[in-house]
Protein backbone atom coordinates (compact mmCIF):
# COMPACT_ATOMS: atom_id res chain seq x y z
CA UNK A 1 0.00 0.00 0.00
CA UNK A 2 1.10 3.53 -0.50
CA UNK A 3 2.18 5.51 2.51
CA UNK A 4 2.65 9.16 1.46
CA UNK A 5 4.68 11.33 3.75
CA UNK A 6 6.36 8.51 5.63
CA UNK A 7 9.53 9.96 7.24
CA UNK A 8 12.99 8.64 6.42
CA UNK A 9 14.34 6.02 8.79
CA UNK A 10 15.72 7.58 11.95
CA UNK A 11 13.21 10.47 11.98
CA UNK A 12 9.97 10.25 13.96
CA UNK A 13 6.65 9.80 12.21
CA UNK A 14 4.03 12.48 12.85
CA UNK A 15 2.22 10.28 15.40
CA UNK A 16 5.28 10.11 17.64
CA UNK A 17 6.24 13.74 18.13
CA UNK A 18 7.78 16.62 16.21
CA UNK A 19 10.69 16.50 13.81
CA UNK A 20 14.18 17.57 14.75
CA UNK A 21 16.24 20.21 12.95
CA UNK A 22 18.53 19.25 10.06
CA UNK A 23 21.98 17.84 10.84
CA UNK A 24 23.64 21.26 10.46
CA UNK A 25 21.75 22.74 13.41
CA UNK A 26 23.87 23.58 16.49
CA UNK A 27 23.61 20.91 19.19
CA UNK A 28 22.56 23.35 21.90
CA UNK A 29 19.22 24.05 20.22
CA UNK A 30 16.30 21.99 21.54
CA UNK A 31 14.31 19.86 19.06
CA UNK A 32 11.57 21.58 17.16
CA UNK A 33 8.33 21.52 19.08
CA UNK A 34 10.03 20.81 22.42
CA UNK A 35 8.72 22.80 25.38
CA UNK A 36 11.00 25.19 27.29
CA UNK A 37 13.27 23.62 29.92
CA UNK A 38 11.47 22.52 33.03
CA UNK A 39 14.37 22.78 35.47
CA UNK A 40 17.17 20.49 36.51
CA UNK A 41 16.76 16.76 36.10
CA UNK A 42 14.86 15.20 38.97
CA UNK A 43 14.80 18.45 40.98
CA UNK A 44 11.97 18.88 43.42
CA UNK A 45 10.78 22.49 43.63
CA UNK A 46 9.70 23.33 47.18
CA UNK A 47 6.88 25.91 47.12
CA UNK A 48 7.45 29.03 49.30
CA UNK A 49 5.53 29.10 52.60
CA UNK A 50 2.23 30.88 52.31
CA UNK A 51 0.47 32.81 55.08
CA UNK A 52 -3.25 33.01 55.44
CA UNK A 53 -4.45 34.86 52.38
CA UNK A 54 -1.05 36.36 51.48
CA UNK A 55 2.66 35.56 51.79
CA UNK A 56 4.40 36.80 54.95
CA UNK A 57 6.94 39.62 54.72
CA UNK A 58 10.64 38.66 54.79
CA UNK A 59 12.21 38.50 58.20
CA UNK A 60 15.40 37.41 59.87
CA UNK A 61 15.84 33.82 60.85
CA UNK A 62 14.58 33.28 64.39
CA UNK A 63 12.85 36.66 64.66
CA UNK A 64 9.36 36.56 66.19
CA UNK A 65 6.45 37.08 63.90
CA UNK A 66 5.27 40.71 63.73
CA UNK A 67 1.96 41.52 65.32
CA UNK A 68 -0.85 41.77 62.78
CA UNK A 69 -2.18 44.79 64.64
CA UNK A 70 0.95 46.93 64.46
CA UNK A 71 3.10 48.30 67.30
CA UNK A 72 1.34 49.06 70.61
CA UNK A 73 0.61 52.74 71.25
CA UNK A 74 2.67 54.43 73.99
CA UNK A 75 0.90 54.93 77.32
CA UNK A 76 -0.53 58.50 77.76
CA UNK A 77 0.45 58.48 81.40
CA UNK A 78 4.17 58.06 80.83
CA UNK A 79 6.34 55.56 82.61
CA UNK A 80 4.83 53.88 85.67
CA UNK A 81 5.76 55.39 89.05
CA UNK A 82 8.12 53.42 91.24
CA UNK A 83 6.36 51.31 93.85
CA UNK A 84 6.49 52.76 97.40
CA UNK A 85 7.03 49.31 98.72
CA UNK A 86 10.26 48.71 96.90
CA UNK A 87 11.00 46.74 93.86
CA UNK A 88 8.68 43.84 93.25
CA UNK A 89 10.24 40.44 92.81
CA UNK A 90 10.77 39.43 89.22
CA UNK A 91 7.96 37.34 87.77
CA UNK A 92 8.22 34.41 85.41
CA UNK A 93 9.66 35.31 82.00
CA UNK A 94 7.13 35.67 79.23
CA UNK A 95 6.80 32.65 76.94
CA UNK A 96 9.06 32.66 73.93
CA UNK A 97 7.30 32.74 70.58
CA UNK A 98 8.67 30.27 68.02
CA UNK A 99 9.96 31.67 64.70
CA UNK A 100 7.42 32.20 62.01
CA UNK A 101 6.72 28.96 60.20
CA UNK A 102 8.38 26.76 62.87
CA UNK A 103 6.30 23.82 64.14
CA UNK A 104 4.80 24.32 67.65
CA UNK A 105 6.69 22.81 70.52
CA UNK A 106 5.32 19.55 71.84
CA UNK A 107 4.98 18.79 75.59
CA UNK A 108 7.41 16.33 76.99
CA UNK A 109 6.30 12.81 76.20
CA UNK A 110 3.87 13.86 73.49
CA UNK A 111 4.03 11.86 70.23
CA UNK A 112 5.75 13.55 67.30
CA UNK A 113 3.57 15.38 64.79
CA UNK A 114 2.17 13.25 61.99
CA UNK A 115 4.28 13.19 58.82
CA UNK A 116 2.64 13.65 55.42
CA UNK A 117 4.81 10.78 54.12
CA UNK A 118 4.36 7.07 54.84
CA UNK A 119 6.69 5.61 57.49
CA UNK A 120 10.06 4.45 56.25
CA UNK A 121 10.68 0.67 56.22
CA UNK A 122 12.63 -0.76 59.10
CA UNK A 123 16.31 0.04 58.78
CA UNK A 124 15.82 2.94 56.34
CA UNK A 125 15.80 6.66 57.05
CA UNK A 126 12.81 8.88 56.48
CA UNK A 127 13.36 11.24 53.50
CA UNK A 128 14.25 14.86 54.38
CA UNK A 129 11.45 17.35 54.75
CA UNK A 130 10.30 18.61 51.36
CA UNK A 131 11.68 15.64 49.45
CA UNK A 132 9.14 13.19 47.98
CA UNK A 133 9.41 9.66 49.36
CA UNK A 134 11.22 7.04 47.31
CA UNK A 135 9.03 4.45 45.66
CA UNK A 136 9.75 0.87 46.61
CA UNK A 137 9.14 -1.88 44.08
CA UNK A 138 8.95 -5.46 45.34
CA UNK A 139 11.59 -7.69 43.89
CA UNK A 140 13.63 -4.81 42.49
CA UNK A 141 16.78 -3.47 44.18
CA UNK A 142 16.49 0.19 45.18
CA UNK A 143 18.29 2.71 42.97
CA UNK A 144 20.88 3.66 45.59
CA UNK A 145 22.51 0.24 45.15
CA UNK A 146 23.80 1.29 41.74
CA UNK A 147 26.28 4.21 41.86
CA UNK A 148 25.66 6.64 39.05
CA UNK A 149 22.21 5.23 38.43
CA UNK A 150 20.14 8.11 37.00
CA UNK A 151 16.86 8.32 38.91
CA UNK A 152 13.59 8.62 37.05
CA UNK A 153 11.91 11.99 36.81
CA UNK A 154 10.19 13.17 39.99
CA UNK A 155 7.52 15.17 38.20
CA UNK A 156 4.14 13.52 37.84
CA UNK A 157 2.44 13.48 34.44
CA UNK A 158 -0.81 11.86 33.33
CA UNK A 159 -0.16 8.12 33.03
CA UNK A 160 -0.16 6.43 29.66
CA UNK A 161 -3.41 4.43 29.36
CA UNK A 162 -3.12 0.68 28.86
CA UNK A 163 -3.25 -0.63 25.32
CA UNK A 164 -6.56 -2.00 24.08
CA UNK A 165 -7.04 -5.39 25.70
CA UNK A 166 -4.70 -4.70 28.65
CA UNK A 167 -7.07 -2.67 30.78
CA UNK A 168 -10.01 -3.85 32.90
CA UNK A 169 -12.75 -5.84 31.13
CA UNK A 170 -15.20 -3.74 29.18
CA UNK A 171 -18.75 -4.36 28.00
CA UNK A 172 -19.20 -3.17 24.42
CA UNK A 173 -22.36 -2.59 22.45
CA UNK A 174 -21.72 -5.42 20.01
CA UNK A 175 -23.46 -8.79 19.68
CA UNK A 176 -20.98 -11.65 19.33
CA UNK A 177 -23.56 -14.47 19.15
CA UNK A 178 -23.44 -14.82 15.35
CA UNK A 179 -19.64 -15.14 15.32
CA UNK A 180 -19.71 -17.61 18.21
CA UNK A 181 -22.23 -19.77 16.33
CA UNK A 182 -20.16 -19.55 13.13
CA UNK A 183 -17.08 -20.78 14.98
CA UNK A 184 -18.98 -23.69 16.52
CA UNK A 185 -20.42 -24.68 13.13
CA UNK A 186 -16.94 -24.56 11.55
CA UNK A 187 -15.61 -27.08 14.08
CA UNK A 188 -18.65 -29.31 14.65
CA UNK A 189 -18.99 -32.63 12.93
CA UNK A 190 -16.61 -34.20 10.47
CA UNK A 191 -13.82 -31.92 9.25
CA UNK A 192 -13.02 -28.31 10.03
CA UNK A 193 -13.82 -25.18 8.03
CA UNK A 194 -10.49 -23.38 8.45
CA UNK A 195 -11.48 -20.49 6.18
CA UNK A 196 -14.39 -19.60 8.45
CA UNK A 197 -12.17 -19.76 11.51
CA UNK A 198 -9.70 -17.38 9.85
CA UNK A 199 -12.40 -15.03 8.60
CA UNK A 200 -14.01 -14.70 12.02
CA UNK A 201 -11.06 -14.38 14.38
CA UNK A 202 -8.51 -12.51 12.22
CA UNK A 203 -10.72 -9.45 11.74
CA UNK A 204 -11.69 -8.65 15.34
CA UNK A 205 -10.23 -6.15 17.80
CA UNK A 206 -9.34 -7.22 21.38
CA UNK A 207 -12.71 -6.23 22.88
CA UNK A 208 -14.67 -8.05 20.17
CA UNK A 209 -12.51 -11.14 20.64
CA UNK A 210 -13.23 -11.15 24.36
CA UNK A 211 -16.96 -10.87 23.62
CA UNK A 212 -16.76 -13.84 21.22
CA UNK A 213 -15.03 -15.99 23.86
CA UNK A 214 -17.71 -15.16 26.40
CA UNK A 215 -20.54 -15.79 23.93
CA UNK A 216 -19.06 -19.13 22.84
CA UNK A 217 -18.88 -20.30 26.45
CA UNK A 218 -22.34 -18.97 27.31
CA UNK A 219 -24.17 -20.39 24.28
CA UNK A 220 -22.38 -23.70 23.71
CA UNK A 221 -20.98 -24.44 27.19
CA UNK A 222 -17.60 -25.11 25.59
CA UNK A 223 -14.13 -23.57 25.74
CA UNK A 224 -13.18 -21.93 22.45
CA UNK A 225 -9.45 -22.31 23.03
CA UNK A 226 -9.76 -26.02 23.78
CA UNK A 227 -11.89 -26.60 20.67
CA UNK A 228 -9.36 -24.89 18.41
CA UNK A 229 -6.57 -27.02 19.88
CA UNK A 230 -8.48 -30.19 19.06
CA UNK A 231 -9.52 -29.15 15.54
CA UNK A 232 -6.38 -27.53 14.09
CA UNK A 233 -2.64 -28.03 14.11
CA UNK A 234 0.71 -26.57 13.09
CA UNK A 235 1.28 -22.85 12.74
CA UNK A 236 -2.39 -22.34 11.94
CA UNK A 237 -3.22 -23.59 15.43
CA UNK A 238 -0.52 -21.39 16.95
CA UNK A 239 -1.86 -18.32 15.19
CA UNK A 240 -5.52 -18.99 15.94
CA UNK A 241 -4.77 -19.57 19.63
CA UNK A 242 -2.85 -16.30 19.78
CA UNK A 243 -5.84 -14.48 18.30
CA UNK A 244 -8.43 -16.17 20.50
CA UNK A 245 -6.47 -15.47 23.70
CA UNK A 246 -6.33 -11.76 22.95
CA UNK A 247 -3.22 -9.57 23.19
CA UNK A 248 -2.70 -9.91 26.96
CA UNK A 249 -3.30 -13.66 27.08
CA UNK A 250 -1.08 -14.12 24.03
CA UNK A 251 1.75 -12.21 25.69
CA UNK A 252 1.75 -14.18 28.93
CA UNK A 253 1.65 -17.54 27.12
CA UNK A 254 4.54 -16.43 24.90
CA UNK A 255 6.57 -15.50 27.98
CA UNK A 256 5.87 -18.80 29.70
CA UNK A 257 6.77 -20.81 26.61
CA UNK A 258 9.97 -18.78 26.12
CA UNK A 259 11.19 -19.61 29.63
CA UNK A 260 10.03 -23.24 29.81
CA UNK A 261 12.29 -26.15 28.96
CA UNK A 262 15.91 -25.94 27.94
CA UNK A 263 17.20 -22.53 26.96
CA UNK A 264 15.46 -19.18 26.73
CA UNK A 265 13.99 -17.53 23.65
CA UNK A 266 15.51 -14.10 24.30
CA UNK A 267 13.89 -12.57 21.21
CA UNK A 268 10.45 -13.36 22.64
CA UNK A 269 11.30 -11.63 25.93
CA UNK A 270 12.45 -8.59 23.95
CA UNK A 271 9.29 -8.53 21.81
CA UNK A 272 6.87 -8.79 24.72
CA UNK A 273 8.52 -6.68 27.44
CA UNK A 274 10.71 -3.97 25.92
CA UNK A 275 9.34 -0.55 25.03
CA UNK A 276 6.01 -1.16 26.79
CA UNK A 277 4.14 1.37 28.89
CA UNK A 278 4.01 1.05 32.66
CA UNK A 279 0.32 0.16 32.47
CA UNK A 280 0.99 -2.69 30.01
CA UNK A 281 3.91 -4.06 32.05
CA UNK A 282 1.81 -4.11 35.21
CA UNK A 283 -1.06 -5.80 33.37
CA UNK A 284 1.30 -8.47 32.00
CA UNK A 285 2.72 -9.18 35.46
CA UNK A 286 -0.73 -9.46 37.01
CA UNK A 287 -2.07 -11.74 34.26
CA UNK A 288 1.03 -13.95 34.38
CA UNK A 289 0.52 -14.42 38.13
CA UNK A 290 -3.20 -15.14 37.67
CA UNK A 291 -2.77 -17.70 34.87
CA UNK A 292 0.37 -19.54 35.98
CA UNK A 293 0.43 -18.84 39.75
CA UNK A 294 4.01 -17.67 39.35
CA UNK A 295 5.65 -14.28 39.59
CA UNK A 296 7.02 -13.12 36.25
CA UNK A 297 10.02 -11.48 37.96
CA UNK A 298 11.03 -14.80 39.54
CA UNK A 299 10.87 -16.67 36.24
CA UNK A 300 12.86 -13.99 34.44
CA UNK A 301 15.53 -14.11 37.17
CA UNK A 302 15.71 -17.86 36.83
CA UNK A 303 16.34 -17.71 33.07
CA UNK A 304 18.60 -14.67 32.77
CA UNK A 305 21.80 -13.89 34.62
CA UNK A 306 24.15 -11.12 35.68
CA UNK A 307 23.58 -7.67 34.17
CA UNK A 308 21.06 -8.83 31.58
CA UNK A 309 18.90 -9.99 34.47
CA UNK A 310 19.26 -6.57 36.12
CA UNK A 311 18.34 -4.92 32.82
CA UNK A 312 15.03 -6.77 32.70
CA UNK A 313 14.38 -6.13 36.38
CA UNK A 314 14.56 -2.42 35.56
CA UNK A 315 12.05 -2.99 32.76
CA UNK A 316 9.70 -5.01 34.99
CA UNK A 317 9.82 -2.35 37.73
CA UNK A 318 7.59 -0.23 35.43
CA UNK A 319 9.38 3.08 36.09
CA UNK A 320 9.28 4.32 32.51
CA UNK A 321 8.60 8.03 32.05
CA UNK A 322 5.02 8.48 30.92
CA UNK A 323 4.42 9.41 27.29
CA UNK A 324 2.86 12.72 28.39
CA UNK A 325 6.16 13.93 29.88
CA UNK A 326 7.76 16.65 27.70
CA UNK A 327 11.23 16.61 26.19
CA UNK A 328 13.42 18.77 28.42
CA UNK A 329 16.67 19.74 26.73
CA UNK A 330 18.57 20.03 30.02
CA UNK A 331 17.61 16.48 30.92
CA UNK A 332 18.46 15.25 27.42
CA UNK A 333 21.92 16.83 27.65
CA UNK A 334 22.48 15.16 30.99
CA UNK A 335 21.44 11.75 29.65
CA UNK A 336 23.70 12.18 26.62
CA UNK A 337 26.64 13.04 28.88
CA UNK A 338 25.90 10.05 31.10
CA UNK A 339 25.74 7.73 28.09
CA UNK A 340 29.09 9.00 26.82
CA UNK A 341 30.69 8.65 30.24
CA UNK A 342 29.30 5.13 30.60
CA UNK A 343 30.58 3.95 27.19
CA UNK A 344 33.17 5.81 25.14
CA UNK A 345 34.36 8.15 27.87
CA UNK A 346 35.92 5.49 30.10
CA UNK A 347 37.73 2.18 30.03
CA UNK A 348 35.05 -0.44 30.44
CA UNK A 349 31.31 0.06 30.21
CA UNK A 350 28.77 0.97 32.87
CA UNK A 351 26.06 -1.32 31.53
CA UNK A 352 23.47 -0.57 34.21
CA UNK A 353 23.53 3.18 33.55
CA UNK A 354 22.95 2.64 29.83
CA UNK A 355 20.19 0.10 30.52
CA UNK A 356 18.45 2.39 32.98
CA UNK A 357 18.40 5.38 30.62
CA UNK A 358 17.00 3.46 27.64
CA UNK A 359 14.51 1.56 29.85
CA UNK A 360 13.15 4.56 31.75
CA UNK A 361 12.78 7.22 29.03
CA UNK A 362 9.77 7.51 26.77
CA UNK A 363 9.96 7.34 22.98
CA UNK A 364 10.16 11.10 22.43
CA UNK A 365 13.02 11.40 24.91
CA UNK A 366 14.91 8.46 23.39
CA UNK A 367 14.55 10.10 19.97
CA UNK A 368 15.91 13.38 21.34
CA UNK A 369 18.79 11.59 23.09
CA UNK A 370 19.82 9.82 19.87
CA UNK A 371 19.66 13.05 17.87
CA UNK A 372 21.65 15.05 20.45
CA UNK A 373 24.28 12.32 20.78
CA UNK A 374 24.79 12.31 17.01
CA UNK A 375 25.14 16.09 16.93
CA UNK A 376 27.52 16.28 19.88
CA UNK A 377 29.83 13.33 19.23
CA UNK A 378 29.48 12.88 15.43
CA UNK A 379 28.51 9.21 15.70
CA UNK A 380 25.21 7.42 16.07
CA UNK A 381 24.14 5.96 19.38
CA UNK A 382 23.38 2.67 17.63
CA UNK A 383 27.01 2.47 16.52
CA UNK A 384 28.14 3.01 20.11
CA UNK A 385 25.84 0.29 21.43
CA UNK A 386 27.09 -2.18 18.83
CA UNK A 387 30.69 -1.43 19.80
CA UNK A 388 30.25 -1.56 23.58
CA UNK A 389 27.79 -4.47 24.01
CA UNK A 390 27.25 -7.98 22.74
CA UNK A 391 24.86 -10.89 23.00
CA UNK A 392 21.38 -10.55 24.45
CA UNK A 393 22.08 -7.20 26.11
CA UNK A 394 23.13 -5.69 22.78
CA UNK A 395 19.96 -6.98 21.12
CA UNK A 396 17.78 -5.64 23.94
CA UNK A 397 19.35 -2.17 23.94
CA UNK A 398 19.15 -1.89 20.15
CA UNK A 399 15.50 -2.97 20.38
CA UNK A 400 14.73 -0.14 22.82
CA UNK A 401 16.64 2.43 20.79
CA UNK A 402 15.08 1.52 17.43
CA UNK A 403 11.58 1.38 18.84
CA UNK A 404 12.05 4.86 20.31
CA UNK A 405 13.30 6.22 17.00
CA UNK A 406 10.45 4.86 14.87
CA UNK A 407 8.12 2.16 16.17
CA UNK A 408 6.56 1.45 12.76
CA UNK A 409 9.85 0.97 10.97
CA UNK A 410 11.11 -1.11 13.86
CA UNK A 411 8.15 -3.49 13.58
CA UNK A 412 8.77 -3.76 9.85
CA UNK A 413 12.40 -4.70 10.52
CA UNK A 414 11.35 -7.33 13.06
CA UNK A 415 9.00 -8.93 10.52
CA UNK A 416 11.76 -9.02 7.89
CA UNK A 417 14.20 -10.51 10.40
CA UNK A 418 11.73 -13.35 11.05
CA UNK A 419 11.67 -14.20 7.34
CA UNK A 420 15.27 -13.44 6.28
CA UNK A 421 18.00 -16.02 5.89
CA UNK A 422 17.75 -19.78 5.62
CA UNK A 423 14.32 -20.85 6.76
CA UNK A 424 11.56 -18.84 8.36
CA UNK A 425 11.44 -18.25 12.11
CA UNK A 426 7.77 -19.11 12.16
CA UNK A 427 7.22 -18.66 15.91
CA UNK A 428 8.51 -15.09 15.65
CA UNK A 429 6.62 -14.33 12.44
CA UNK A 430 3.30 -15.51 13.87
CA UNK A 431 3.76 -13.66 17.17
CA UNK A 432 4.90 -10.41 15.53
CA UNK A 433 2.13 -10.34 12.93
CA UNK A 434 -0.52 -10.99 15.57
CA UNK A 435 0.87 -8.35 17.95
CA UNK A 436 0.95 -5.72 15.18
CA UNK A 437 -2.55 -6.53 13.89
CA UNK A 438 -4.47 -5.70 17.10
CA UNK A 439 -4.29 -1.99 16.21
CA UNK A 440 -5.38 -1.61 12.59
CA UNK A 441 -3.86 1.86 12.22
CA UNK A 442 -0.58 0.51 13.53
CA UNK A 443 -0.73 -2.42 11.09
CA UNK A 444 -1.34 -0.10 8.13
CA UNK A 445 1.65 2.03 9.10
CA UNK A 446 3.85 -1.07 9.50
CA UNK A 447 2.89 -2.20 5.99
CA UNK A 448 3.76 1.26 4.64
CA UNK A 449 7.09 1.31 6.47
CA UNK A 450 7.96 -2.16 5.18
CA UNK A 451 7.31 -1.18 1.58
CA UNK A 452 9.34 2.01 1.94
CA UNK A 453 12.36 0.24 3.39
CA UNK A 454 12.40 -3.01 1.40
CA UNK A 455 10.68 -1.84 -1.83
CA UNK A 456 8.20 -4.72 -1.74
CA UNK A 457 4.86 -5.34 -0.10
CA UNK A 458 4.63 -7.17 3.18
CA UNK A 459 1.85 -9.33 1.73
CA UNK A 460 4.06 -10.44 -1.15
CA UNK A 461 6.92 -11.24 1.24
CA UNK A 462 4.66 -13.36 3.46
CA UNK A 463 3.31 -15.26 0.45
CA UNK A 464 6.85 -16.27 -0.43
CA UNK A 465 7.52 -17.68 3.06
CA UNK A 466 4.23 -19.39 3.96
CA UNK A 467 1.55 -21.53 2.34
CA UNK A 468 -1.93 -22.97 2.80
CA UNK A 469 -4.10 -21.98 5.73
CA UNK A 470 -1.05 -20.62 7.56
CA UNK A 471 -0.51 -18.16 4.69
CA UNK A 472 -4.20 -17.19 4.61
CA UNK A 473 -4.17 -16.48 8.34
CA UNK A 474 -1.11 -14.22 8.16
CA UNK A 475 -2.48 -12.32 5.17
CA UNK A 476 -5.83 -11.82 6.90
CA UNK A 477 -4.06 -10.41 9.95
CA UNK A 478 -2.25 -7.75 7.93
CA UNK A 479 -5.52 -6.64 6.30
CA UNK A 480 -5.54 -8.62 3.05
CA UNK A 481 -8.75 -10.23 1.81
CA UNK A 482 -8.52 -14.02 1.72
From TrEMBL:
One of its GO terms (cellular component) is nucleus. It comes from Schizothecium vesticola. PANTHER family: ANNEXIN (PTHR10502), ANNEXIN B11 (PTHR10502:SF102). It holds the Pfam family Annexin. Keywords: Annexin, Calcium, Calcium/phospholipid-binding, Repeat. PROSITE patterns: ANNEXIN_1, ANNEXIN_2. One of its GO terms (molecular function) is calcium-dependent phospholipid binding. Residues 122-138 have a biased composition (Low complexity). This is Annexin. Belongs to the annexin family. Residues 1-171 are annotated as: Disordered. Transmembrane segments: none annotated. The keyword Repeat applies. The keyword Membrane does not apply. The lineage of its organism: Eukaryota, Fungi, Dikarya, Ascomycota, Pezizomycotina.
